[in-house]
Amino acid sequence: MSDCIHLSGIRAYGHTGFLPEEQTLGQWYEVDLTLWLDLSRSGASDRLEDTYDYSADIKAVQELIKTARFQLIEKLAATIADIFLQSTQIEQVRVRLTKRHPPIPDFSGQVAIEITRWAKTRNEG
């Protein structure tokens, strides 16, 4: 599948992290997503009902970041991927999760991870 929707700059303040100050004080996170799906139908019809409506899932990602209390950003990224893979339209998702200001002494950069997950075969089970 070569059709993609890119969603970038999804930001929220959350409390995921191993360090006590991350769990207590929190920090800003940013999410960039690539969603692989078939866009041929919506490309031909020009109708919203023929494409993937991502607006509710963007809000779900922001709410997850705000409420989750995971120790690892890997778990947060995997949980974000699961949100999108619940849709029968999404075949694959790439999640890039960035800690905008990690509490690391003498480090003013960012830390990011990227994971890619595929939908399970829809005919299983």
Supply database-style keywords.
about 120 residues; alpha+beta; GTP Cyclohydrolase I, domain 2; four-stranded antiparallel beta sheet; 4 helices; elongated
Polypeptide structure, described:
With 125 residues, the protein is an alpha+beta fold. The protein has one domain: GTP cyclohydrolase I, C-terminal domain/NADPH-dependent 7-cyano-7-deazaguanine reductase, N-terminal domain (GTP Cyclohydrolase I, domain 2, 2-Layer Sandwich). It is 30% helix and 30% strand. It is built from four helices and four strands; from the N terminus they run E-H-E-H-H-H-E-E. The chain has a four-stranded antiparallel beta sheet, with helices on one face. Helix 3 runs antiparallel to helix 4 (73-85). The chain is elongated, with a radius of gyration of 16 Å. The two termini are 24 Å apart. 18% of the residues are buried.
What composes the largest sheet?
Answer: 4 strands, antiparallel
Global outline: elongated
Largest beta sheet: strand ordering: 1-2-3-4
- Following the backbone from N to C, one meets helices and strands in this order, namely EHEHHHEE
CATH architecture: 2-Layer Sandwich
Enumerate the spans where pLDDT stays under 50 for 5 or more consecutive residues.
none
Helical stretch tally: 4
Question: CATH topology, which one?
Answer: GTP Cyclohydrolase I, domain 2
Mean pLDDT: 92
- Percentage of residues assigned to helices: 25-40%
CATH superfamily: GTP cyclohydrolase I, C-terminal domain/NADPH-dependent 7-cyano-7-deazaguanine reductase, N-terminal domain
* Broad CATH class: Alpha Beta
What number of domains?
Answer: 1
What distance lies between the first and last C-alpha atoms, to the nearest angstrom?
Answer: 24 Å
Structural class: alpha+beta
How many strands in all?
4
Computed over alpha carbons, the radius of gyration is 16 Å
User: Into which percentage range does the β-strand content fall?
Assistant: 25-35%
